[in-house]
Design goal:
By secondary structure, this protein is mainly α. Helices cover 88% and strands 0% of the residues. It has one domain. It contains 3 helices and no strands. The model has no long low-confidence stretch (mean pLDDT 82).
């Protein structure tokens, strides 16, 4: 293979690896969060035998809700990177920086 084809192959391989990484991340996200919601009921049943503390139940609920929310935000950023989505504010910033650096030289 000639040099440009080798570079294209490496870039394609890198993108496939990034996609695989994202899909693994997504699978783990789904499995863990489904498990959290399933286990939530069991944890509450287990602990309510000893205590009917409403604060404890709320603490469990908040922790089980916060994990998928923040992890989901991280997953969205991972997806944006893998699928090469450029956020508009970042694209505008890149264009401004390019113009600025071109003026300097």
């Amino acid at each position: 293979m000639d040099y440009p084809e080798n570079i294209k192959l490496r870039k394609a391989h890198k993108r496939v690896e990034a996609l695989k990484g994202f899909y693994k991340h997504l699978l783990v996200y789904v499995i863990i969060n489904v498990a959290l919601f399933v286990v939530r009921g069991r944890v509450l049943e287990f602990f309510q035998i000893e205590s009917n503390d409403k604060n404890f139940v709320e603490w469990i609920d908040w922790n089980i809700l916060i994990v998928p929310i923040f992890w989901g935000i991280g997953l969205l950023f991972h997806a944006a990177k893998v699928f090469q989505y450029k956020f508009p504010f970042l694209k505008n910033w890149e264009e401004r920086q390019l113009k600025k650096f071109m003026k300097e030289e």
